[in-house]
Amino acid sequence: MTTINDTSSNNHHKNKKLLLISSIVFVVILFSSLFIVYKFAINDDGGVGGVWDVSLDDAVFVRSEVELERAVDGAVLGVSSVVVLTGDVFLSKSLVVGEGRNVTLTSNTGNGVGVGRGFFRLVGVEGERVVVVEGGGVLCLVGVVVTHEVGVKGGGVDVRVGGEFVLVRGEISGNTLADVWSFGGGVYNLGKFRMLGGEISSNNATYTFIPAMLGHGGAAMGWHQEAGGVYNSGVFELSGGSITNNAGCDTGGVYNRGTFVMFGGEITRNTASNGGGVYNYYRGNFTMFGGEITRNTASNGGGVYNYEGDFVMRGGLIAKNVAQTYGGGCGGGVYNGLGSTFTLYDGEIAQNTCEIPGDLSAYMKSAGYYMEGGYLYSPGRMLISYYGGGVCNSGTFSMFGGVITKNIVNCSGGGVSNSGNFIMLGGSIVNNRANSMGGGVYSISYDDKEFVFKGGVIVDNTSANGEGDNMYSADIRGNVLLIR
Question: What pTM was estimated for this model as a whole?
Fold first, then answer.
């Protein structure tokens, strides 16, 4: 018995030692996770808004709105502070990161700090943005979800002029703007926003009609909603992560009126009336070096809608986007409108479609639409047209390289439909299909608008009626200039 008791006592002491060692290991792993997260943030271009001098002594653990506000407002001016959520925090007003505050916000869910998928939430209140970063303020988000509860309306993040926001890991999701003048359900950025990872997802800028008073006592009904995911009028850099499953009136994914640079990441599965993935508008500059714009849907510009903006593609992929509507559509991959410039140096525009919606049969029977000779007509015999499976151009399109391939259009211009200025100096337009004319390129010339071919390859495209498998060009009066 004594021997047994001694063994039990020894085992007991061993178990205590093992428990102590396990606890120490857990603490080391916990703080190592914290260190690794901030090392990642530090190493990316030297940090944002100054020196990232994060140490473990800076970490403040909070579990309520009062504690969170105290930690943010009490951050030493000009010094980076770390705030760790230990549970969901429900706000009664926007969390404001003021001038001079440099805050890294993360969460500890038991999986380590800022790691895993079980992030804690920062939950906003009705009618308010969850987070506001004022000019001179910096916020880095690592493993936190910025959101509203289901049925509660309000935006995600508001970055003011001079403010900076870095999304390393986590989500800005489930936010909805329902006001008529709505900009950016997920993000409204007038400052600088850097996205290294995480998600901006399932946000909405919804569609509401209101009476709008006009100049001489008249009235009209109007609306103005832009960008379910991101509204940018500052500087936005996308290096990683995903902008996905957002919806809006003008663009589901990104509405850009500032400078947007895309190095990586993806803009995918967003929906809108114009510009499912991206709407680049009025002096907006969008440069794409890499990443993907895929599987977005809109009436025009399934992937990209460029209007009075400048879009430069130097790499990456625009693919599997769809432009479709019962009233006709343009630009499955890219719609380049009047006053716009689209320049293609490299990258691929592939497998985009511009076509009649799949459920057309039932709709046609109920609304009186009909097919004749491969074309769709309205009840009043108006031709419903679809142009540009890959690119629909009404502005200026310059192609120096890259590939436009495997795109499909219901009407004309499987690869490219042009009614503006299109000059091709390199690259290839191959294996596209049109159900009418111009499998590769369909171009209508008028005034000083024309298609100029100076280099590159246009081969192996098809048109259903055999009129210009690779190229079809005519003037505005219908006089054929080139069929090849």
Answer: 0.83
Tokens of 444: 């209508």
Contact 174, 150 (CB under 8 A): yes
DSSP state of 475: E
Q: Which single residue is written with the structure tokens 């994060």?
A: 54
Cα separation, 220 vs 213, whole angstroms: 7
Nearest CA among 141, 130, 197 for reference residue 164: 141
Cα 483 to chain center, whole Å?
A: 38
How far apart are alpha carbons 482 and 299 in whole angstroms?
30
> What mean pLDDT comes out for the span 373-381?
55
Calpha distance 73→101 (Å, rounded)? 8
Tell me the C-alpha distance between 11 and 21, whole Å.
Answer: 15
Tell me 412's DSSP state.
Answer: B
DSSP three-state, residue 183: strand
| Cross-strand bridge partners of residue 386 | 329
Helix, coil or strand: residue 355: coil
pLDDT tens digits, one per residue of 156-190: 999 999 999 999 999 999 999 866 567 899 999 99
The token duo for 57 is 């002594």
Residue with tokens 């009618």: 127
Q: How far apart are alpha carbons 125 and 230 in whole angstroms? A: 20
CB crowding 296-308: b at 16 or more within 10 Å, else e: bbbbbbbbbbbbb
Burial profile 6-35: b = 16 or more Cβ within 10 angstroms, e = fewer: eeeeeeeeeeeeeeeeeeeeeeeeeeebbe
> Using CA atoms, how far apart are residues 278 and 328, in angstroms rounded to an integer?
20
